[in-house]
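Box 3.1 A note on notation
Throughout this textbook, protein chains are presented in two layers. The first layer is the amino acid sequence; the second is a token string describing backbone geometry. Keep the layers aligned when reading.
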Amino acid sequence: MQQIINTEQAQAWNGYEGTHWADNHNRWNAVLSGINDELFARPQSRKTIECLT
């Protein structure tokens, strides 16, 4: 099992905030679509990828 470093974030996503996000995923996807499209269109450096994993 993985060790969770940011326990507060894990608790938030496993609680109300995660439920709210999941219940409103279409809304959040629409809000973030312009940002996501730009970020995913750019080439990713190895350093960036390592930070995200």
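Residues 25-41 form the longest helix (17 residues). The chain is about 75% helix and 0% strand.
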